[in-house]
Structure formats: C-alpha cells, structure tokens
Queue: 2 jobs
Job 1
Amino acid sequence: EKKKKGKTARSKARNLLERLRDYENETLRFVVDYNVPFSNNQAENDLRMTKVQQKISGCFRSMEGAKIFCRIRSYLSTCRKQGVTASEALRLLFQGKWPDFMSVKEQSTE
C-alpha cells in the first residue's frame, strides 16, 4: 500500500480547537478589555454597504467615485458610533462644522 505524502488531513473541529488554543489571548480579549467587541459584526456591517452599492450599479464608474463613496460612508459610520445621527452629521457637514467628537481640543503648553 502506498503512503500519501504530506500532512495528514485534520477535521474542521480539530483545526478550530488548535486555533483557539494558539490564539487564546486574542480570542478572549473581549473578556478583559471592554473596548474590544464580542464579535466583528460591526466591521462586516461597515463593509456591507460598499458591496451592496457595487451589486446595485454593477461597479463604481471611477476610482475617484469609489473613494468619495467610502469617505462619506466612513464619516457617517463613525458619527453613528459616536451617537450622532446621520441627518445631524450631514447637517453639520453642509454647514462646514464638525461634530463635537471631532473637534480638536486645545492642548496646554505648560
């Protein structure tokens, strides 16, 4: 009987168990650092609208248009995470103002 070359195939469960073991600190970081979310759903949601836009129109017409779309989505997403509604964020933007969380605070030169 011929022996197969290379590593023996492992099950998906075994691979998952090994990754959890090898990356235990990263996997459980949300337990000790409350700034780390339990899941990465927010990151996926932030990217989803770009993909939806591509599906609706087929593509972006130019790289510049894609950059503008991403810049606007990023601004609105950041505002939402900071408790600023999209309508308020856009109103401030058209008035040439920043939301309070974006304001640069003067630093003391003491």
Note: The chain has one domain: 12-96.
Job 2
Amino acid sequence: MAADGDFSGAKIVLKREDRLLAYLRDDKSGIPFPGLWDLPGGGREAGETPAECAMREVEEEFGLHIPVGRIVWSRRYPSPFGGLASHFLVAHLLAGEIEQITFGSEGQRWRMMTVERFLTRKDAVPDLQTRLADYIAECGPSGP
C-alpha cells in the first residue's frame, strides 16, 4: 500500500467471524483514554505506510505477524484534536492465530469480543466505535 501523506498513526480491527481483538488500556493518568477498551495500533514511525504502522503495532502489542496483504478495508480520518490524520484498517485473523497471541506490556488484558459488544460498550474508545460503525455501514456485518 502506498503512503497516504502525513498521518499520526493507525488502528486496526482484527476480526475472526463476528469477534474482534480488543484490549483494556492501562488505567493511569497521563495517557489517552485510560481504562477504556481499545483496538491494536498506535503511532507512526518514520516512513511507514498506514498498513506497516498497524502491523508493526500488532506485532509489538500481541506478538502476531499479520501480512499487510490481509487488510480488507482502510480509511483515513481527520484528527478530532486538530493534528495529523490517522488511519483505521480492518483485517481478518486466521483460525489458529488467536491461540498464538502473546500480550505485550501495554494494557491490562485482552479478549476477543463480539463486534456488537465493542460497539455498545460505554467503556470503549468512542472514536474507534464510530469508525467501526462506518466500516459496518459500508461493508455489512460480515464485511469483505
């Protein structure tokens, strides 16, 4: 995938059927969205494309190596804070990959939860709920 100009980072939905991989952020002051359920991803490192950024973060946070070719949806979003844009991507997990997860040092715990549960949680990152809803509105609940 080609780089999409300047951007701050990328978040990714890793789906397996009707479930997605989410993690509970650390509950400490000084970080964005403390104690909320989040999706894999993070800040861009020099020269990365959105896909490369998301997949590096997945490897760092969950120990999974997911090929960028598995991404099925991507959209650029403006920053709600007036900074650089960010990207939101969707890719599928294969059957055995969930068992291969090795949770990194950021966050309290991870879980596979239904897409519907993530969308309706009061303790999930709101912008990511909106972006996930955009994907479902465009691609349907099963997606591409």
Note: The two ends are 18 Å apart (CA to CA).
